[in-house]
Amino acid sequence: MDIKTTADKIQNGDRRALARAITLVESTRAQDRAAAAALLAELGTHRQALRIGLSGTPGVGKSTFIERFGMMLTAQGLRVAVLAVDPSSTRSGGSILGDKTRMDLLSRDPNAFIRPSPSQTQLGGVARRTREAIALCEAAGFDIVLVETVGVGQSETAVAEMSDLFLLLLAPAGGDELQGVKRGIMETCDMILVNKADGDLKPQAMRTCADYASALHLMRKRPQDPPDFPKAVAVSALEDHGIAAAWDEMQALATWRKDSGIWDARRTEQARFWFHEEVRAGLLAQLTSDSAVQAQLNALENDVALGKTRPGQAAETLITQFFPRNR
Amino acid sequence: MDIKTTADKIQNGDRRALARAITLVESTRAQDRAAAAALLAELGTHRQALRIGLSGTPGVGKSTFIERFGMMLTAQGLRVAVLAVDPSSTRSGGSILGDKTRMDLLSRDPNAFIRPSPSQTQLGGVARRTREAIALCEAAGFDIVLVETVGVGQSETAVAEMSDLFLLLLAPAGGDELQGVKRGIMETCDMILVNKADGDLKPQAMRTCADYASALHLMRKRPQDPPDFPKAVAVSALEDHGIAAAWDEMQALATWRKDSGIWDARRTEQARFWFHEEVRAGLLAQLTSDSAVQAQLNALENDVALGKTRPGQAAETLITQFFPRNR
């Protein structure tokens, strides 16, 4: 692959070049990693999009919401890319984006680009390649990059850490017991969208929305928020209700953050965060790519789990053995 | 210092030996680190205590609560150690344990041991030396080790990760706006104690308690909890109300977790967690103890913050420069 040619094609909006480049950044082969790094360096960092993270468990209507939301944006002349982060290796239930046909209209829209989530996944790698795929979409001139994740494990946190706005899509809940939102994630979300505010479910959706609004209200104010955020709003993807209003709210929040300087500060903070994550991950990868180190790591972890040794002692053993101070 | 003699003294309940050993684990000097490691290895891991984490912002009455709670436990024949994790370098307001005189009775109780928090602090090191101080107190035969932290930054999470039971002490709040609990921390706490349920504040405390009970109820059930946990209870440290009941709840939760095998699984998980943290921290420490590496790390972080390079690219530059794959 010629890096310069590919970069030009991507910047000129060639969708196949973009798709191939995303495949490249998804690869774990050393040769592909090097090419991906060269391509990203060639593309630079000057074009940027509004990065929206969207988390929701299977069944809340994510694909319907994304289709409606995306179509609304493209109708306004905006170009929209949709990426998926799915930490599960199986496709059953979780990876809605694995099936483009569920977003039939949007997938055929020339101003939209939908990328299903890759199959084999490890979280560290997922975060990296998702950030790189975002960078590729930005270089390709998309105005909005929507990153979708199922609300499982650390993927939500990772997506929140790479988003300008982070949204949580929820279904109406029957009783308060059923509203299973992880507490940690409420800390990071900017807006809760309660979907299915339509038909028989509408009253439930409104109650659920009020419940979440008061739960959010109970929590500590964040300096990065205007007074009325984070907020909970009810939407119906099916009937296309409330989505334009939700978009207005997103834009208001974005404007507020940009005007207050929080937008840039947040992106800088995120870049620093990912740099340190990459250094940590890279060091560990170097360490564990050595099979002798890996064997010792496993043996020591086992000793620690059995209480034979303390975590600090075991770590010191490993490090002094394989990575002495005087290199 | 003779390791064997010190270990014997600690195991025989010599409080001065224990205090000196804690000073040793708090030291960052290489020679002291080696002695601390040898001492911990000599002491082994067979004696263990109930580890209770307690978080609460300044002003909620932590010292009064700890004094009452500690005195109640020692009256039952239990030996109680109190440690502090305070990530702030200043003592103003935060570090209640910096002032033993606020726990006058408990500090003079022969069955209690109170250790103020050390002054200079970095979080990684704080977690490590607190875990080592816990181990020393356990070796000294304490039945309960209470680890106190102010609810700031990552210290709460670190304390939660080294506790068998994690409690949040809160003050009554006037309106729902004022109840500033970080959302993330509700995810990890086992019990919320609303203090100052006495005098004029009692009605407010009861309302605050009910608010938190319903907020906890709204959240997702955790597999490590019996059906009625996490729960919120009202206490008055001043009037010594509700503390015995809270202790009954803690014991009920402990028994439930022990019977269900969750207790051991949790400790094993925590040991694994800290092992990997120690490996990560140790690797980074090795890397950054080299001034050339540190300079390059700072330069690259700056480039990343300015958007001149991407996090992954910068990390790769650093790692290939200083830690090539083929050692």
From TrEMBL, chains A, B:
Pfam short name (any one): MeaB
Record flagged with keyword Hydrolase: yes
InterPro entries in the record: GTPase_ArgK, P-loop_NTPase
SUPFAM superfamilies given in the database record: P-loop containing nucleoside triphosphate hydrolases
Superkingdom assignment: Bacteria
Coiled coil: none
Protein name, per record: Methylmalonyl Co-A mutase-associated GTPase MeaB
Organism: Octadecabacter dasysiphoniae
Taxonomic lineage of the native organism: Bacteria, Pseudomonadati, Pseudomonadota, Alphaproteobacteria, Rhodobacterales
UniProt gene name: meaB
